[in-house]
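Support case: user asked for a sample of complex input and structure output to validate their parser. Sending the pair below.
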Amino acid sequence: DAMVIQNPRYQVTQFGKPVTLSCSQTLNHNVMYWYQQKSSQAPKLLFHYYDKDFNNEADTPDNFQSRRPNTSFCFLDIRSPGLGDAAMYLCATSTVTAGGLETQYFGPGTRLLVL
Amino acid sequence: DAKTTQPNSMESNEEEPVHLPCNHSTISGTDYIHWYRQLPSQGPEYVIHGLTSNVNNRMASLAIAEDRKSSTLILHRATLRDAAVYYCILRDPVRGSNYKLTFGKGTLLTVNP
């Protein structure tokens, strides 16, 4: 089945130690998103790629970066994780349609714990 | 940006219909009403969307008020697997600030056996 895959499902890192989260998709969608979801809160968009074009949300901290080496893969890099960055990180994909009403398909998320 | 208001939580019994309300009094003419849900420990998943007319799919029905200031997601027969947070989201298909999915707090639906 075509899907959005996130690895690992759980990631533990140390305060200040860079960490990378991975997302891959078999849907061949041209848009990929990264959301942050803290405990008991709604998902919040960090940034997205429209093909190779990177679109950062205005309030996304500089500590968060992303790479998309090809259509299938997208990475979230947290340069110096703080305790406040502990959250579920959700990857999603979509494909732009003529009507602009594309559905977003989400992966299962990676839960990040910062010690 | 147009915002939505949903009850924090609702409760239902298994096999009974569930009506999840959403208020969006400042909706614009080009905003579509989208519903996503998030099951425990999973990413959100698309449920349904509509503009003016009521919509049905295999998961649910969407009833939209004539003035479009409110809508209701209808699960015809709730199952335990429908227990989730349901998000009502307004989205403009024209790429702009309101194009993206902006999640509100949603409604936590509990389904009792």
